[in-house]
Amino acid sequence: MPRQEDAGRLAERLAHLRRVCAHADLIVGELLARYTRKALARDDMLDALVLAVTGCLSGGALRQVPAEGDADRTGLRRTISFYKPEERPLAAGRQESI
């Protein structure tokens, strides 16, 4: 994939993050200044930020699929956690932000 398409996708993802995380640009800028591209891929950085924001916005109300989950050979549970925002009411017309 050409670099320009990568940059466009990253910019789009960051724009979505800005809607719910007021400090998204500050966090991304700090990470880019602190780590080389070789040490921290930009898409991985945004993935981690999305997960952190999701966890914060969930207020601890993450759901898991499957509900019980199985375990890997070390005993670590394997589940996918997600946040279902309709379970936390927001004021009409407002977006939640962290």
UniProtKB/TrEMBL annotation:
It comes from the Bacteria. InterPro entries: DUF429. This is DUF429 domain-containing protein.
